[in-house]
Amino acid sequence: MVDQSNVSISAQSISVRRDRRTRNRPPYWMIAPAVFLLAVIVAAPFLVSIYTSFTSLNQYSIGNWLHAPFVGLRNYISAFTQGSAIGASALQSLWVSVAFSLLTTLCITPIGIVAALLVNTPFRGRSWVRALFLIPYVMPVFVNAITWRLLFMNGWGLVDKVLAWLHLASVNTFWLIGPNSFWAMVIADVWSSWPFIYLMVLAGLQGIPNDLYESAYMDGATQVRCFFSITLPSLRPILSLALLLSTLNHFNNFTLPFIMFGTPPSPQADVLPLNVYVTSFQTFNFGLGAAMSLITLVLMMIPAYFYIRMLRLGEATT
Amino acid sequence: MGSPKKWLNKKWLNKKPLLVSAAVLTATAGIPFAVYAGTPSTVTLSVYIGYDANNPQAQANLYNKTLIPLFEKENPGIKVTWSYYSSSTQENTELQTAVATHQGPNVFELGTTFIPTAYATKSFHVLSAADWKAIGGKAKFFGPQLTMSGPNPNNYIGVPEMMLPFAMVYNTKLLKAAGISKPPTTWTQFVNDAKKMTNASKGQWGTVIDPEDSYDPWKIVWAYSKQLGSDFLSPNLKKATLDSPQVVNAMTFWFDWLTKYKIVSANDLTYKNSDALQQFENGHIGMWVFQGPSLIPSLNQSAVKGEYAFAPLPTVPYGMTSRPKGGTPTQTIVSGQDLAIPSYTTGATYQAALKWIKFITDPKQQQELFNVYGDLPVNQQAYKGDAALNTPMMKAFVQSEEHASPTPFSGDWGNLETIFAGVTNKLADELATNTFKPADIASQLQAANAQVQQSLQ
After folding, report:
1. Which of A316, B70, B79, B439 has the fewest C-beta atoms lying within 10 Å of its C-beta?
2. Which chain B positions have a beta carbon within 8 Å of A44's beta carbon?
3. What value of ipTM does the predicted structure carry?
4. Contact between B421 and B242 (Cβ < 8 Å)
5. Which residues pair with B308 in a beta bridge?
6. Is residue B4 part of a domain?
7. Residues B128 and B185 in one domain
8. How far apart are CA A33 and CA B171, in angstroms?
9. Which residues of A are less than 8 Å from B212 in CB distance?
10. Is B440 exposed, middle or buried (0-12, 13-18, 19+ CB in 10 A)?
11. pLDDT at position A282, please?
C-alpha cells in the first residue's frame, strides 16, 4: 500500500518546484513591445520589399501598390543587365562599393592604429590631442562632403592649387567628375572615418596589462618587437571587429557621394546605395530598386555572418 | 510594496502579458491622434509646402503670424497646420509615402513639372467645375500656368499658387564695360556678347554652364529645342524624341559654349546650380540663362548687388535670322508652384482645402507671398496697384511668362529629367578627361532616348 503522507509530501514538493520555476522564469512577455515594434519597423517593410521586388511598381501603380503587376524575376535580371540613368548597372555599382569600402578601410586602419598609439602614453596636453583627433568623426557628414566638394573644385579648389604649386598635377585636374571622382570620394571618407579605428584601438590598448611590456623589456625586447608580439596580437579581436564594422559602414555610405557629386554621379562614384536611391526614388522604378536592395542585403550578409560568428566566439571564450 | 524584482515576478503580470503590452502600445500610439484630432466641430487642415532657404524666418512669420491667423479668423472651425520640405528629394519622398499609405498632408505644394507625376499616381482630386468656382474661377490665373495643371482642362489636379518664369540674369557692369548697350535677343548676339565679356586671364566669362546640375541643363536644351521646333516627347507622349536633330543641335550648341566659342570656363564642367550662382555673385559671369526671381534675395546680398538685371531669353537660334518652321518663341518653361489635394482628403476637410486654396490665390495673399518668396503671383489682379510687381525687373519675368511653353504632361517626365542629367554628366566626364568627340552627343542622346522610350506608358 502506498503511504499517503509520502504522496502528499511529494506532490507538495513538485508544486513548490513548479512555483519556483515559474517565479524564476524570465518574464519574456516584457520584450513583447520590442518584438512588436521590430516586427512593424523591420520585418514588415522587409516583407514588403521582397514583394515589391517581384512587381513593376512605379508611379502609375503606387497608389494601389498591392495590385502592381507581378513580373517574376525580371527586376533581378534587370539589376545586373540594365544601366541606370548614367548607364551603371547594379553590378558595376557593386564593384565601386566593394572597392570603396575595402580601400577606405585599408587606408584608415594604419592611421587609426598610429594615432591611438601616439596618445596612449601620457604626455602634457594629451586630452586636447585626443579631442582634436575626434573632430573629423564628429563633424556632420554633409559638412564634410560640402567642404571636400569645395576643396576638389576644378581650377580654383585648394587641392588643385596645391598640387599645381608642388608641380605634381595640372591645376585643371578634375576630381568631381570622371575617374578621379572615385579617389576624391576615398580621400574625403578616409579623412572623416579614421577616428573610428582610432577609438576602437585606443579602447583595446587600455585593456593590455602593463606587466606584459615590463616582462618583455626585461627580456630585452625592443619597442617594435613589443608592438608586433604583444600589442597587435592583443588588439586582434577588437581590431577585427572594427575592420568589419568599418567595411560595412563604408559599403552603405550614401550621404557622402550624394552631397559631393549630386545625382546622377559619375559612374566611377556611383556606389550601390546611390544607384538604388536614384532607381527607386528619382526614376520611380520601385520594383527594380527593391530587387537591388535585396541583392545588397544578401551580399552584406557575408561579412555579417563572420561578424556574428566572431561575437559568438567571444561569448564562448569569456 | 515589495522590491522591483518581486513586483515583476507577480503572477498576475505573468498571466496578462498581451493585455499589458497592448495597453501600453495603445496608450502610446494614441497620443498623436489625441493631439491632432481637435474637437469634433473643428476641421484640421495640414498644408505641406516648400522650405524657403533664403529667408526661413520670414516664411515662418508669414504662415504663423499672417496667413493662418487671418484664414482661421475668416473661416471659424478650420484649423491650419503647416510643415515643409527642404528639397525636391523630400518633396518626392513625402508624396510617394502619402500616395502609398493614403494618409498625410491635405494640401500639397508641388512644382509644376512634378504635377504630371502626381497625376500619374491617380491619387489626387480632379477638380470639378464646382471646385473651380469655390476657388474663384480659372479666369483669375495667368493662362499659361494652367497648362501644367493637368493633361487637359477637364482633368486639372493642380491650382497655380506662384509662378517662377525663367529669364536671363546679366551683370550690367560687365555688359557696359564690354560696350554692349542692351541684352541679346538672338543666340548669335548672345554668343558674340559673351565673347566680348570674356577675359579668361581675369577669370571673367561671358556666361556659365552647370552640366552636373540635375535640372538646369534640360531646361536650357529643351527651350532651345522648342525654338528649333522640337520637343523631348512627341505630342501624344508615346514617343521619346531626345534623338531628334533639333535636340542634338540644342545640346551641341550648349556644349559649344565651352568647346567652340570659349565663352565659359572649363571649371564649369563640375558645376551645379549653386556653384554657378557663386561665380555670378562674385562678378565673374556676364550672363546666366534660365534663372528665376527667387534668385533676387541672394543676389541682393552679394557683390553684384545693384549691378544686375533680368531680360527674357533670346528666341532666334544661333546662326539664323528667324526661327525655323515649327519653332516657337519659348523663353521659359511653365514653372512655379501648384497646390493639389490628395484623394484621401474628403468631406469637410476637402471643402476646407478648397477654401484655403482660394484664400492663398487671392490678390492680397499673393502679394504677401511675393514679398517673402520673390516668386510672382499667379493671380493677375495682384499686379494692379502694386509698385513692387511693376518694376522693369519684374516686367522682364512677366514678358517671359507670355512666351512660356508647358513641358510635356507625361508621368515619366521625372524619369526623363534624371536620364537627361545622366547624358550631360557623361558628356562633361568626357570633356574633362579629353575623350570627348562631337559625335558622342548624338550617340549619348540616342541611348538616353531608348531608355526613356522603355519607360513610357
Report:
1. A316
2. none
3. 0.77
4. no
5. B171
6. no
7. no
8. 63
9. 176-177, 261-262
10. middle
11. 80
* pLDDT score recorded for residue A265: 87
B446 shares a domain with B391: no
Query: Are residues B422 and B372 part of one domain?
Result: no
User: Would you state the pLDDT for residue A7?
Assistant: 59
Contact A279, A289 (CB under 8 A): yes
H-state helical runs in A177-264:
180-206, 210-218, 223-226, 232-251, 255-261
Specify the residue for cell string 585643371.
A172
Which positions ≥6 away from A221 have C-beta within 8 Å? A229
Minimal Cβ distance to B99: which of A32, A62, A265: A62
Interchain contact A86–B (C-beta under 8 A): yes
Q: Which of B366, B387, B405 lies at the terminal end of a domain, its last residue?
A: B405
In a domain, B152, yes or no: yes
Q: Does A45 touch chain B (CB under 8 A)?
A: no
Q: How many domains does chain B have?
A: 2
- Write the CATH number for B101: 3.40.190.10
Per-domain boundaries in chain A = 4-44, 84-317
Do B284 and B383 belong to one domain?
A: no
Across chain A, mean pLDDT equals 86
Q: pLDDT tens across A237-271, in order?
A: 889 889 988 988 999 899 999 999 987 888 889 99
pTM above 0.90, yes or no: no
pLDDT tens for each residue of A43-91 = 999 999 999 999 999 889 998 888 899 999 999 988 887 766 556 677 8
**Grid cell listed for B301:** 546680398
Q: Please state the separation of Cα B52 from the chain's center in Å.
A: 13
Task: Kindly report the backbone phi and psi dihedral angles of residue B51, in degrees, each rounded to the nearest multiple of 5, phi listed first.
Answer: -80, 135
Predicted confidence (pLDDT) per residue in B16-54, tens digit: 444 444 444 444 343 333 334 445 578 999 999 999 887
CATH classification code of A84-317: 1.10.3720.10
Verify that B428 and B338 share a domain, yes or no.
Answer: no
Interface list for B 77-96 with A (CB within 8 A): 89, 92-93, 96
Is B222 in the same domain as B318? yes
Same domain, B143 and B70: yes
Q: Indicate the pLDDT class of residue B190, thresholds 50, 70 and 90.
A: very high
A83 Cβ under 8 Å from any chain B Cβ: yes
**Do both B227 and B310 map to the same domain?**
yes
